[in-house]
Amino acid sequence: MAYWEWNATGDPAHPHVIVCVHGLSRQGRDFDTLARALAPQARVICPDVVGRGESDWLQDPQGYQIPLYGGDMLAMLAQVHSEGAIQALDWVGTSMGGLIGMGLAGQPGLPLPAPIRRLVLNDVGPSLNWEALQRIGQYLGAPLRFASEQQGADALWAISTSFGPHTPGQWLALSRPMLRPAPEGGFRLHYDPAIAIPFKSLTPQMARDGETLVWQLYDQIKAGTLLLRGAVSDLLTPDTAAQMLQRGPRPRMMEFAGIGHAPTLVAADQVAAVTQFLFAPEATQNA
């Protein structure tokens, strides 16, 4: 599993580590803008979850599920810890990355180098709207090919308008790492199309069973938590967000107007929300 590291502290083994984990079909370079803002005060690790970005693809596509991803994160953190002791560990997770974070933060006794101190859940919760999952399944794993980077960026925008307003430059910067040269010429998407196999095998009953487990994990989270929500998100519903505010870590919540699933953490107000939460004094993190 590959990961991107940002560190402008002058200390290559800085004891404050922030892990930023992307969504289902994305990759670690999604966090370039946020990582630049965090790097002067911490060591920022942005993995490409297996099957995405620069990471290897699995021989068995049934491995493309949260339990395996969580195990990979534990192995990655053990390696990072061996390079310099982690004394403070924070987690920023967008969508799937937030589910992985809930799994790690909500299981006491896991071999983490340090407890997750602060957790940012970006437009994700224990309950996921079934219609939104079906929408994502319509394009996940499709064998798309593009003649140019710009054509690829335009095609990605067509399925990602819910991310909210971006300048052309911002969107092209987010899109370039999503593309890879195709053997037959042009470009393809970065991820293994087989990540769609376990996703598309999900049934409503399986989703409900999974929600029960994730709510149990959520209720055990002790980390200071910030919940971010796109105000028109179809994945994290207002009802689920309201339940989250009353349960488990009782997070703070910030909503971003005109944005659905999911905020990209590129806009200045989104970056400021995460940065201020992660670096706030302990007494004010959930105030």
Give the topology, please.
Layout: E1 3-7, E2 16-21, H1 32-38, E3 43-47, H2 66-83, E4 88-94, H3 96-105, E5 116-122, H4 130-139, E6 145-146, H5 149-158, H6 168-175, E7 179-181, E8 187-189, H7 196-200, H8 204-219, E9 224-230, H9 238-246, E10 252-256, H10 268-279
Describe this structure in words.
The chain has 287 residues and is α/β, with parallel strands linked by helices. The protein has 2 domains: 3-137 and 203-284, Alpha/Beta hydrolase fold, catalytic domain (Rossmann fold), CATH 3.40.50; 142-190. It is built from 10 helices and 10 strands. It has helices at 32-38, 66-83, 96-105, 130-139, 149-158, 168-175, 196-200, 204-219, 238-246, 268-279; strands at 3-7, 16-21, 43-47, 88-94, 116-122, 145-146, 179-181, 187-189, 224-230, 252-256. The strands form 2 sheets. Strands 1-3-2-4-5-9-10 form a 7-stranded mixed sheet, sandwiched between helices. It has a 3-stranded antiparallel sheet with strand order 6-8-7. Helix 2 (66-83) packs across helix 3 and helix 5 (149-158) crosses helix 6. It is globular, with a radius of gyration of 18 Å. The protein starts with a strand and ends in an 8-residue tail after the last helix.
